[in-house]
Fold these 2 entries.
Entry 1:
Amino acid sequence: MKLRDILFLNRYIFIAALIFNDSKAKKFVNRLESHQKQRDDIRTLGFSMIEGFFTAEECDTMSQFIEDYIGVHDRKFANDHRIYSIQKLNSYIKEKFHDSEILRQIGEDYTQTHLILQSTLGAKLVEEAGNKGSGGGWHRDSHTLQYKNIAYLSDVTEENGPFEYVAQSHTKQAIFDALKYRPPGKNCHNYRFTQQEIDEISSKMGLEVVTVCAPKGSLLLADTRGLHRGKPLIKGVRYALTNYFVPEDLFQPEEIFDEVYSHSKNQ
Ligand SMILES: O=C(O)CCC(=O)C(=O)O
Ligand SMILES: [Fe+2]
């Protein structure tokens, strides 16, 4: 076993490393008067919504762009067609979503740190037998700061892959407490959780699993340190756009990001 693995098996060392990492983040003071509700919701629950962020027509236009790129610019992960860095292919999406200054500011006000929008993802999910939904099942995106905006371009119901979130699982305390329920031998650094672990964590910690169904044009703002997944699709399709924000010090130059998430080939 490597030293790194031994350290990650010890949750107390892991927690100390997280606290240290957090203490280094640059802080600044709020500047937005608007969107107080969203900021409060994300703080307490881990996520929030802005309804009617896009009109139905804007959603249809952007879904059609995603559809047109499938087979040309997407990478396919099971039932999930992903178009990475879609802002580089499409100036309409870039202008309407990627370049939205208000969205970056809401994120900065919530995270209290300078954020850079790393990339925008366009995705179409389709129903397929045994699909795991968007993101491949329950997970945290990270144990350190992670913040995302997901724009629903389709009406999202229980059936076509709604975002699901364990409310209040994003706080440092909840992250630490959840580590207690990891099965013995499961590395603290492993971000993936089984359904059984989610059931155990939510019942023992008294946390509620929330399914976020919403009409098209709704925008979800989420601290994706919290436990979440895209629910497996039972029927239909879901089109969505996701903005990935990172703190300044985690920003990867575009060449590196694009190399990792090369969008030129289907898998
Ligand atoms: O699209 C969603 O509903 C969630 C996706 C997700 O969690 C991810 O890609 O990390
Ligand atoms: Fe995720």
Entry 2:
Amino acid sequence: MTTAKCNYFLLALLCVCWGSFCEPADSSENRKEHWGDIPGFLDQQHQHSLEAVEALLKKYPPQIEESLERRAALLLLDTVLHDPEAPGYASVQAFFIRRTQAVIAALQEERVTRGARLWKLYDHGFIVRTASTTIAFDIVTGKHVNKDGFLLPEDVVEEIARQCDILFISHVHADHADQHVAEAFIRNGKPVLVPEGLWENRPFNDHLVRLKREAGTVQTVPIHENADRLSVINYPGHQGERTLNNVVVVTTPEGLTFAHTGDQAYDKDFQWIDTVAETQRIDILLPNCWTPDMPRVIAGFRPALVVPGHENELSHTIDHREPHWLNRVRLGNEAARAVCMTWGESYEYVPAPK
Ligand SMILES: [Zn+2]
Ligand SMILES: [Zn+2]
């Protein structure tokens, strides 16, 4: 072999080796170190943490008495989501989308024959299904978090709208009211109930339903293209003095009753909160976990089951990304009738015989 030929041969060999040895080392999962790449390092650490969270949650599903393993999983989740940059990481974005897709897969499969099944979604989003009806509360796409990649894909939003019969939106804030979700419901012919002042000058305004804000009035809302009716009391709640916040108590045709509080936070509203249970028999209460005086809210509604929401809203600074570990402190003795869940989890509720 001449020197030139030999050099050419060595170069070709080097290229082959480079191609075969270097490719796997580039994949972020196989990296042996992340020196000089702190975001890459944290993303991998979050990835491992979230995988452990999911494995533990699967093994220890939602229940009133939390095992140490389940409590540790929710604590680990709080820890990941309290990274100030959490919504910017691919691992967290994938977790959010995957957990929501799991809800859709369950909705496509699950027929409810007794009681209700409740799914928790991002922030204060819930879907509850009974034998007759599937109701959505405050579902959002994540767009308000304003991080590229922290967003539900269009097909996911569309399928949520297809699977549900109605959407309730509590108040104007973007972590509860998402135009893309509302439009998907409207496109699918499903009623969207909104508070006064929300989207009044949008082209789809005619399709929105605004109920009277009256504690003493039972209103009916047609569903299933007028074949069935929901009974709704639209309590006149507030977040602070100024923001109108609808607190709905919804009764399905088979007589199951669900209450969603939105961002209820206004002392004067205890006037009606304290009296809800005098006329209503609530099966499940879905309060914002940070509502002032949670035990008093629960005493007012006197529900059979409490499932707090609004944990880890990622558009908030970490002091208001409410952690799961604070739920137990806030619930106090009411923890005995509460189930704490995270995105993508569900719980079967069977009412006690009357
Ligand atoms: Zn709010
Ligand atoms: Zn909120």
